[in-house]
Amino acid sequence: MLDRVEIKIKAGDGGDGAVTFRHEKFVPYGGPDGGDGGKGGDVLAKADASLNTLAFFHNGKFYKAENAGGGQRQKKHGRNGDDLLLAVPVGTMVQTYDDDGNLVILSDLTADQQCAVIANGGKGGLGNSHFASAANQAPRLAEKGVAGEEKDIVLELRLLADVGIIGYPNVGKSSLLNAATAANPKIANYAFTTLEPMLGVVQTTKQRFVICEIPGLIEGAHLGKGLGHDFLRHAVRTRVLVHLLDGASPSPVDDMIAVNNEISLFDASLSLKPQIVAINKTDIPDVHARKAELRKVFKNAGIKIHFISAATGDGIKELMEEVLELLRQHPLPELPKEEMVELYPRGMTLGLSVEDADGYFIIHSPGLERMVAGSDIRNPEVRRQIGRRICSPRLRHVIERAGIKAGDKIRIGDFEWTW
């Protein structure tokens, strides 16, 4: 079972705006009619209940949405790029890295058909028809489309189960799952029999719920020892934990403390989940003889315990009824509504800053940089029009407050200008 994979994604780039003019019969003055570029395709992740593994992403490591088309004459809008849809199993958490290299959650897909945008396509550039004014009736300016987002993505599948069975290896977790559900996990008398998490459905007289075996817990599991990291993540989604102990162990209390320590070190939220403690293997005569002793030890610690035998089924029905009652006391939290936020709003925003570097003042402004990149700055008329735009009162005030004086050289992208 492949439940964690890292891929790279790239949203589509926005299309460039067009620089065109009307040349029609009986239209003496014509005018600019360059259309806007289209929007680049988004990359989306969608939960699909028919999938149960991330193995599809093992072979392909780079996924890219379609780029948009450029604007055309007669104010024709460029074609929008097609979105790229990545189908993932229900329970997949989509994460990316922040500037400090830490993983942050983009979306948690916990319901079938739930969909989220994980990389936004670039906005299309404005055509020259948007730059016409009374002072510039023949603009040769246009914007270059915005590049789509590019990210390193970590897809992590965390099984969706109401209840998780935790405990040391070989305490009988697989046997309990087999006895309580129709699941058929591998059962043997050695550690790490189970090499992947197993799910089963418990059907009581009142309700049904999903239970999951969480294998691989040993000392150091939170550091990845044994199979710790591979399986501990699946316990995070559960609402209730069944802590299974071996009645034949020299000290079941110490075993419980050690396992609880490992899960809390992996994720502090696990230590807050309600637990039901069950002591297994009461069918063994020595364990049966210790029941009174064990009950007293745990009672002194303030812990209620259940005695069961996963081999014979003794006490399992009562244990599952207790689990169901605890589930009713801890209902599923409501999922927060995901808000769609437009990454690149329409229109040229100011967003201007000035940097003093080696005799040049470098102006950083997304709108101006895109306009320079989308226009033919080798054309003297284009350079004049860009200069007039920079000298507009709105920009001039910000630039001069940054300390630029007459005769200073400024740079925007590849464009250089003497103030």
CATH-assigned fold name of the largest domain = Rossmann fold
Radius of gyration: 32 Å
Strand content: 15-25%
Q: Percent of residues in helical segments?
A: 10-25%
Q: What is the overall pLDDT average?
A: 82
H-E order: EEEEEEEEEEEHEEHEHEHHEHEEHHHEE
Give the CATH architecture of the largest domain.
3-Layer(aba) Sandwich
- CATH homologous superfamily assignment of the largest domain: P-loop containing nucleotide triphosphate hydrolases
- The strand count comes to 20
Structural domain tally: 3
**DSSP summary: helix tally:** 9
Spatial shape: elongated
Describe the structure.
- The protein has 419 residues and is of the alpha/beta class.
- Helix content is 21%, strand content 24%.
- The protein has 3 domains: 4-157, GTP1/OBG domain (Spo0b-associated Gtp-binding Protein, Chain: A, Distorted Sandwich), CATH 2.70.210; 163-329, P-loop containing nucleotide triphosphate hydrolases (Rossmann fold), CATH 3.40.50; 353-418, GMP Synthetase, Chain A, domain 3 (2-Layer Sandwich), CATH 3.30.300.
- Strand 17 and strand 18 form a beta hairpin.
- The strands form 5 sheets. Strands 12-13-11-14-15-16 form a 6-stranded mixed beta sheet, sandwiched between helices.
- The model is unreliable at 185-195, 221-229 and 335-349 (pLDDT under 50).
Features:
3 domains; Spo0b-associated Gtp-binding Protein, Chain: A; 419 residues; alpha/beta; 21% helix; elongated; six-stranded mixed β-sheet; GMP Synthetase, Chain A, domain 3
